[in-house]
Amino acid sequence: MPGFVIRPIDPEAHDEVALVAERMRLTLVEVLGEETGGAMYTREWLEDRVREHLDPARLRGQVFVAVESGGAVAGHTIVRIEEDDGGRAFGVFSTTYVAPDARRGGVADALLDRGEAWMREQQVTVAQTWTSDTNDPLLALFRKHGYALTLRVPEKKMVVLSKAFED
Ligand SMILES: CC(C)(COP(=O)(O)OP(=O)(O)OC[C@H]1O[C@@H](n2cnc3c(N)ncnc32)[C@H](O)[C@@H]1OP(=O)(O)O)[C@@H](O)C(=O)NCCC(=O)NCCS
Q: Where is the N-acetyltransferase domain (predicted)?
């Protein structure tokens, strides 16, 4: 039995929205370094970006949090639906973050499963994420879930990983 449950974020809970926004910043710091990642966006911008994923009038998205039995938020994943150049919809995992003291306990595995289930509910058949080409834990996580590298952007040191859902 895992010691956490996965549920949608509570859009009315400002502390949850603020926590996920702060962890978006921490993700950027971990991936890009304090100097580049830490100063990229303001707190207000990040909180608005979280809220955008919860407002169907702005985009089709969702934020899932992993909540430990004591109530602490161990991690989150932000998902949304985008369209490719041909107008075909696909699912995107935006940031996925697990607090350092909760890592290696299967939290990200469970967040990915929940995010994919949401994408299937949205009727998309392809999911995608992108990250730094040196982010070995994230690359290993998505490869474990069947994702393959589909694009490399060397000038940005970024890679895209994709997966087609099986029926
Ligand atoms: C990547 C991250 C989300 C993984 O979270 P986690 O809860 O520790 O991951 P899990 O325990 O669910 O591990 C699932 C799989 O991911 C991979 N993985 C996770 N951490 C890893 C590590 N440090 N090294 C190598 N593989 C790792 C493994 O394949 C693992 O499967 P296994 O346990 O069967 O070997 C977490 O390390 C993190 O938040 N990193 C910083 C933020 C970040 O870089 N986010 C992505 C940018 S969008």
A: 4-166
The DSSP result for 33-69, as a single string, is -HHHHTTSS-HHHHHHHHHHTT-TTT-SEEEEEEEET
CA atoms within 13 Å, Cβ hemisphere of 161: 20
**From ligand 1's centre to the CA of 95, what distance in Å?**
12
Closest Cα partner for 24 from 37, 8, 10, 11? 37
Q: Which atom of ligand 1 is nearest to the CA of 110?
A: 12
Residue 59 belongs to a domain with what CATH number?
3.40.630.30
Q: Which of 80, 103, 113, 161 to mutate to test the pocket of ligand 1 (most atoms within 8 A of CB)?
A: 103
The residue range of the domain holding 21 is: 4-164
Cα 32-81-62 angle, rounded to 5 deg: 75
Structural domains of the chain, count = 1
* Residues near ligand 1 (Cβ within 6 A): 27, 30-31, 95-98, 103-109, 131, 135-138, 140-141, 144
